[in-house]
Amino acid sequence: MFESFQRARATTKKIEDAEDLEGFQELEQDDRKKILTKIHQLQESLTMKAKTKTTAKKLPAKRDSEEPIGANVNSLHISEAKRKKLDQNRADIQVSRTDESSKDNSFKEFRKLCAKLYDESAYTAKTAIVRNFFEKGTCGKGFEGDTYLWVKFLLPSVNKRIYNLQSKQLCKLFARVFGGPIYDSMVEDLEQGDVAETVAKFHEEAIKCPPTPKANLSLQQVDRYLERLSRLTREDDQAALLDEIAHSCTVNDLKMIVRLIKHDIRINAGPKHILDALNPAAYEAFHASLDLEEVVRQSLAEGFGSGVVTVGIKICTPVKPMLAEPCRSVDFAFKRFPNGMFAEVKYDGERVQLHKRGNEFFFYSRSLKPVVAHKVNHFREYIPKAFPYCDSLIIDGEILLVNTKTDEILPFGTLGVHKKAQFREAAVCFFVFDCMFYNGKSLLSEPLSKRREILTAYMSVVKHHVQLSEMEGIRSPARLKANIEDAINKGLEGLVLKDPASPYEPGKRHWLKVKKDYLQGGTMADSADLVVLGAYFGTGNKGGIMSIFLMGCYNPSTKRWVTVTKVHGGHDDATLQRLQKELQMKKISKNPNLVPSWMDVKQQLVPDFVTVDPLTSQVWEITGAEFSKAEAHTANGISIRFPRVSRIRNDKSAEDATSLEELIRLFNLSKRQVLKLDDEVGNHITRSNDELLPGETRDGNKFNTSTPEKNKKNARDRFDSAGNESCDKSPKKGKKESISPAKILTSSPSRKANSRTVKNNTEKKITFKKDESSLFTVDSSACTGEDGEKAEGVNRARRRLPECDLPRLFTGIVVETLPTDFRYYQDLSRYFIAYDGKISKKGVTHEIGTKKGTVCIDWIWESIKRRTKVDIDSYIN
What Pfam families does the record point to (predicted)? Predict the structure, then answer.
């Protein structure tokens, strides 16, 4: 066939693209590669044939004085005049070329490149493909396209345009464009998980708007279409523009445009793989600045070399936020930060990055999208008051709702426009915890202690509106344990630990976060045994299968099953495939009219599938960060934050699962103060002045990173003398507001009672066990019960523990041994003793094991998790 194409006339239509072949994507990978090779050879052959019929243009001779743009300007052999000329050449480099007629700006060529990247599995090979294209272009004589536009299209998830078009809405709009009663059919086809394929399928069959036979679009045309679409909000306007687009597209053109709208072009390549094709240093520069156009410009200036690309941050271009990785023990924290750390309250709000340029304000979310106006508009009034000496600024922080009478921070989820209206005595407050840019100077490379000093020197607190985050310097493990205890027992999300000497590293997880569900091997996490009530189709590589599941419990008072949470994490691919057959489901396609009478579910959560009979459905153990309130669910508004499937409970039936009554009790128990530390490792130690961390001051018995008002001018002078822009205005006089609205972590009565001063810069040595998850001093490895001495040693350790409010679940219960092969053995033995159980060969009351008549180990484990002694009858073997 390909030989026939080589002999054919120039006017004969030939295969130019793999996507011209119907069913190409269904072929085996080896077959696809063979066909791509044949297509490539055909194109090369036709190009050579065309060259023999064309007289080559004579190029002007290159002058010796000319140097390539990518030349090494640091060479000692280049004169100063040449150096200046080269620098000017770099500055004049055009990232964008506007010749839309160039084949290198063809949208069809873009699709071809994406097809090559899709078929290549190795990331280094993907980079080589892109680099080769940008060097040689379509014809092999040099790239003449718009490099920046190509990179932007290859990375649609980086510089996201906001279209507000979900998959079903796209089906609705294109059903209008294509004509006919096809919407329901499109939605049904959408269950395969790829809206682009659905649109392409119905475009091919469209009568009202048939596809154009030949691809003529340029990248610039598509870019203008997408820019216009991002500005439209009315459905009629969107439909009119999509109709215009569809009339200009082939089937494959429209499919790719829909992929661009969904920010997923299916090439399995990220910023690193694409930018490495321009310059090995490009990705790091982009990661720090997110300024894609400037990174491309500098990379082109290096001529695809390996020179350094340095791009600074700037106003209106959001910076990737610095992140934190989980910290599961105090020991781990001090291994990471051996010289001490700042411990900051982990606010349970919404991460916001503020950019200020004169009187202009820009707010970006954690995902770098603009924040909805109702949450941040009022800050335009308070930010100038908080930063009176500042013209340009980038700060990082969290917005939360604060009770203006009690200073209490209101729970997560109250920032919504309707929820916020319910709290009349509350205000949205911006808690600032970092500064990346101040008055024209980037602070990314400055240590945290210096950045914090700048904040405290130049920021004036506007109570309940703009406040500094609560942060304390920590040098001792005991102090950190105390702060963790206080934070969790006060119902806060946890702590964030930071190195005082660290720079701000965009996108890097170099902070640590301590949360309840990370501690003690995860046993502090909240969990419940819930029944699978329904399921939803997945998207992407999970398209066409059930991969998101609706979990719930039974409400005996209404005799209906209520919803608790949606979960999609915890199953591997093999388990998901098995569940497609194991779960007995009935398809209702999110139709509220088909919801069975036994299910109590709100309309926005109606699933694609419902279980045929909840009494025969599977029971899964769902674990999350904490129980939370969510009005979208019908289980008395109780839900689970960050849920995941811990295990499938094949040993339980739906009757044995957590009921609504039990769920309410678990919710209430989880809000109580349950974490109590040993005296030996939990004392609150007061440090001496010579133990201050960088940027800290002493305020009475409290160490913090705020600067007293009387020292603010000195701090500003120190900052200005370091080379930063000076502030012409003088600071305000008068007493400064406290930086902590709720006085979190520092007002605990127990802390004052237990505090003691350490003299001569020494303190009691604290020993940590190798098991980093343990916050207790009991050695659970002794709980084998193999001899009386070991067991008695454990019980003596238990008697040494201080009096605490842990539930006495196992009072009077004596076991000879606990099975060491149990998955959570160490946590089990520790908790069994902490909850007043006893391990001894004498006076045994319960035999734990698998033989008939013995008690299943799950009885102890379930009681520990639920913090109440569960009925033992269900656990007798």
Answer: DNA_ligase_A_C, DNA_ligase_A_M, DNA_ligase_A_N, LIG3_BRCT
